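If your schedule permits, I should be very grateful for your opinion on a structural question. I would ask you to consider whether the tokens describe a fold that such a sequence might reasonably adopt. Thank you for your consideration; the sequence and its tokens are set out here.
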Amino acid sequence: MKSYNEEALKNDPKANFGRPYKQCTISVMDTIADPDITFDEKGVSNYYKEFKKAKEQNVFNGEKGKQKLVDLVNQIKSKGKNKKYDCITGVSGGVDSTYVALKAKELGLRPLIVHFDNGWNSETANKNIENIIKNTGFDLYTLVVDWNEFRDLQRAYFKANVVDIEALTDHAIICTLYKLAIEHNIEFILSGANVVTEQILPRHWIWGKTDGKNIQAIHQEYGEVKLKTFPTYSAFKFELFKKRKGLRSVRILDYMEYNKKQAKSEIQEKLGWKDYGGKHFESVFTRFYQGYILPVKFGIDKRKAHLSTLIFDGQLTKEYALEQLQLPIYDPDLMREDYEFVRKKLGFSEEEFMNYFKAPRVEHSSFEHDKRNIWENYPLFKVVKPLWKIIKKVK
């Protein structure tokens, strides 16, 4: 097995994208983490200013936050009156989504809980989701993926050497949320995304989660199994749902004092939630992806972003973050177990798996993909854009 050696990467110009190694003076973001990172004259990275701006614009604490949350909840209840559900939310069993479910219960909302089972759930995750449902009384919809299709998609992403293998799961859960929201006439999707624990995420690490065209293009190039059930939506369909059906994703955690440590303590006490030992470690694949694939193949230690976000919010110190980065990303014995488990479950030979970690990164943009702007995806529709604006006003 190859291993991740941060100290060696610091002295490798290629790993620092042609620059000398440099770390932000406030956080632990550095030149290994992001080719686009910049520093001011005091050595502070661009992420600090971006975090401050995002927090000022989107996070509301104190009385203002309480009032905005009350207004939002009243709006959700009003729109959901006489409906079986007034909102919908996806739950992975992780801290953020579990906390959203708990707050929804305490705020008197009636969400439909949605879980996407892609065949990689840990036993702890299954137990945590079971406890959420038992303690909240909410209905649970679980989409169990066709394993042959999902396995073929993941194999295709490995063969393509693209970075965001988790885009498959994220895309499927978003599609499922939208589909169920339309079926049940729900307008509000409660999101666990938030500024104070998740704001930092370099573009170099991810790809657009709603880009169904990129998924289909990569699978067409490297897949072997015909996709019959895996949900993929085009950019146009997502836009249609948002603009025409009025679907809205709301980030309720930005309207309250959200502290990761306190949130964990609260869901442990009220929902019997068990900790996984790492962010997004509720899935065996995600644990291996974030703990081994990303650092070893792509030079990405996601803890740098998670810890830096919490430093910027004052939830921990840089000294503590540096101590955490000196520790293994996760237990080495469990990592070796996961290596063999993931390799065998995806059907790779030992040689194929070793060669994967030696192969260079290929960008998602090398394959057909959606543009950021819907009008760029469908240029012929530009002729009806003025009419579309009129329809929206009439609506």
The mean pLDDT is 92. The radius of gyration is 21 Å.
